[in-house]
């Protein structure tokens, strides 16, 4: 099973539907469909909701108030699809005569809805199908339903907001705005039912439903830095609005890609957020923390390219979702971290963000599913390629391939076929495997040697440093001898290897008269740079490309050779040790 995971701003986003899987076209033959069982990408796909797609593109999406159903519209052909959460599948689909602009669900479930179509028609749907339709004078752009008065408000390409009373079944007097072009957005405050109309002239008009008159006017002004970077070809318009449940906060999206946050008690926004793309804002939503912490509340804003989730107080980015196709609308499942996104692709995107909220109750398995996907991450798309820099190409002798189809430029280097890279590396360094094998064997032997249980031997009171050096030297000789003759049973005589047990040298470690004081001037003159016996330098000579057996030498002789000093055969007797000869060529 493959689950696409992205990590923008260190926040994990799991794609449980949409760009992470493919769709089968309706015209694909049944015989070709059977071939897909051998396609690993198709067989390992994740489908949160069955048939969660449209033939061409999805337009609008909303969840019902009872939290049991999801309604979406799309093309082509224009249609409505209703999905049931408990069954995680499509309940039914219904075709319409024209494309949908926006819709409103009137009932708590899916049974009653109103659709605003792009041919000036308003369609009323019930369980059986289209119940009634009526035409508005101008092309509609948005609609909203006012439950206390049963008024359906329709913003259109005129200065009027049309009122269709569903209780009386007739049009009432329209709200006349000061806009000379049209009304793009109509919203209703959920706390005190204040109407809000966003116009094409770039103004926001606030209307009281009781007096049916305008009580406020907002003219958003962008900061000078934002105004200077604004595309002059786009007129400043209000394209999206959303009230918060507290009744005081208002989010406003503009055609220049900016989001302004207002307190209704002030005419100036407390925060201006720039999407950095310059595309009109399509949808806004306030996301309150599941635990009720108002300080953690966030704002979700989307244009056609990206959907951003950010902090309402300082505008800091929390995370972002950037689908492969243009965004049309989105819907957040209440009290969860699951977001549905309609787009210009066939699949409706479904994104789960655990940091934002838990999984909904009807798909609580998402939490366990994401944990399993973390254990088996999706392989890299470049798993068959190796990234190499220009310096590595030169060392491999392949810099002449730059500019050919063998190397694919990427960032500060190139991608090349992994098998070709392995062959070139083997040719450039034929002893690489031998060196690697030797290093692994050495590390394994050192690990085994360190895991042995060693008895801490008590050192004598006289000449402790000399006794310690002799013990370490004897243990090393013993280990080397046993490692070199694994197949033969070796009996090691401790008296031969350990000079401390030799009776001839007992007084050297018991009689204080034989103690060697290494701090005296005479000792330092005789041994100017002597170190412990285990601190030896390995001399490696390479002759004809082969390594010869390492010879242990003392640091004094190494320094003499480095300075160009002649060194002859030198013999010395360490007290109680065998005479050793070191020859430097």
Automatic annotation (TrEMBL):
Recorded superkingdom: Eukaryota
Alphabetic keyword roster: Nucleus, Repeat, WD repeat
Record flagged with keyword Repeat: yes
Domain Nucleolar protein 10-like N-terminal: 4-376
Localization: Nucleus, Nucleolus
Domain named Nucleolar protein 10-like second: residues: 381-429
A Pfam family matched in the record: Beta-prop_NOL10_N
One BP term from GO: maturation of SSU-rRNA from tricistronic rRNA transcript (SSU-rRNA, 5.8S rRNA, LSU-rRNA)
InterPro entries (alphabetical): Beta-prop_NOL10_N (IPR056551), NOL10/Enp2 (IPR040382), NOL10_2nd (IPR056550), NUC153 (IPR012580), WD40/YVTN_repeat-like_dom_sf (IPR015943), WD40_repeat_dom_sf (IPR036322)
NUC153 domain segment(s): 502-528
Keyword Repeat: yes
GO cellular component: 90S preribosome; small-subunit processome
Family indicated by similarity: Belongs to the WD repeat NOL10/ENP2 family.
Protein name in the entry: 16675_t:CDS:1
Organism: Funneliformis geosporum
């Amino acid at each position: 099973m493959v689950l696409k995971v992205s990590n923008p701003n260190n926040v994990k986003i799991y794609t449980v539907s949409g760009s992470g899987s493919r769709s089968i076209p309706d015209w694909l033959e049944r015989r070709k469909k059977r071939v897909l069982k051998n396609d690993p990408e198709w067989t390992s796909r994740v489908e949160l909701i069955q048939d969660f797609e449209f033939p061409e593109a999805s337009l609008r999406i909303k969840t019902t108030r009872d939290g049991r159903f999801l309604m979406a519209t799309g093309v082509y052909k224009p249609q409505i699809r209703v999905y049931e959460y408990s069954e995680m599948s499509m309940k039914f689909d219904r075709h319409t005569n024209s494309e949908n602009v926006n819709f409103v669900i009137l009932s708590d479930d899916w049974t009653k809805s109103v659709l605003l179509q792009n041919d000036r028609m308003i369609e009323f749907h019930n369980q059986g199908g289209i119940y009634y339709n009526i035409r508005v004078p101008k092309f509609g752009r948005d609609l909203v339903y006012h439950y206390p008065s049963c008024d359906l408000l329709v913003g259109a390409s005129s200065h009027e907001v049309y009122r269709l009373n569903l209780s009386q079944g007739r049009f009432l007097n329209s709200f006349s705005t000061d806009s000379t072009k049209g009304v793009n957005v109509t919203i209703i405050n959920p706390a005190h039912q204040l109407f809000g109309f966003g116009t094409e002239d770039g103004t926001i008009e606030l209307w009281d439903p009781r007096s049916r008159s305008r009580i406020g006017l907002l003219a958003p002004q962008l900061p000078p830095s934002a105004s200077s970077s604004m595309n002059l070809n786009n007129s400043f318009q209000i394209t999206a609005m959303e009230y918060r449940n507290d009744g005081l906060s208002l989010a406003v999206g503009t055609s220049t890609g900016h989001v302004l946050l207002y307190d209704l008690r002030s005419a100036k926004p407390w925060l201006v957020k720039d999407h950095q793309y310059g595309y009109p804002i399509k949808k806004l939503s306030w996301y309150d923390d599941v635990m009720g912490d108002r300080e953690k509340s966030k704002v979700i804003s989307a244009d056609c390219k990206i959907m951003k989730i950010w902090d309402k107080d300082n505008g800091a980015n929390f995370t972002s979702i950037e689908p492969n196709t243009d965004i049309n609308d989105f819907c957040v499942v209440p009290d969860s971290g699951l977001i549905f996104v309609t787009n210009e692709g066939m699949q409706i995107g479904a994104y789960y963000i655990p940091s934002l909220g838990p999984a909904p109750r009807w798909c609580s398995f998402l939490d366990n599913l994401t944990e399993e996907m973390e254990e088996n991450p999706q392989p890299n798309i470049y798993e068959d390629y190796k990234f190499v820099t220009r310096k590595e190409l030169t060392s491999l002798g392949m810099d002449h391939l730059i500019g050919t189809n063998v190397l694919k430029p990427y960032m500060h280097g190139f991608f090349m076929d992994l098998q070709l890279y392995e062959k070139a590396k083997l040719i450039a360094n034929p002893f690489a495997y031998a060196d690697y094998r030797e290093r692994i064997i050495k590390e394994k032997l050192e690990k085994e040697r360190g895991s042995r249980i060693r008895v801490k031997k008590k050192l004598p009171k006289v000449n402790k440093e000399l006794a310690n050096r002799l013990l370490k030297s004897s243990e090393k000789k013993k280990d080397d001898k046993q490692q070199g003759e694994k197949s033969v049973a070796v009996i090691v005589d401790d008296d031969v290897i350990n000079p401390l047990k030799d009776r001839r040298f007992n007084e050297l470690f018991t009689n204080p008269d034989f103690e060697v004081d290494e701090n005296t001037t005479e000792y330092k003159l005789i041994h100017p740079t002597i170190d412990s016996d285990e601190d030896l330098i390995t001399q490696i000579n390479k002759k004809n490309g082969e390594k010869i057996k390492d010879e242990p030498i003392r640091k004094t002789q190494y320094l003499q050779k480095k300075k160009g000093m002649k060194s002859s055969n030198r013999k010395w007797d360490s007290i109680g040790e065998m005479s050793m000869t070191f020859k430097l060529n």
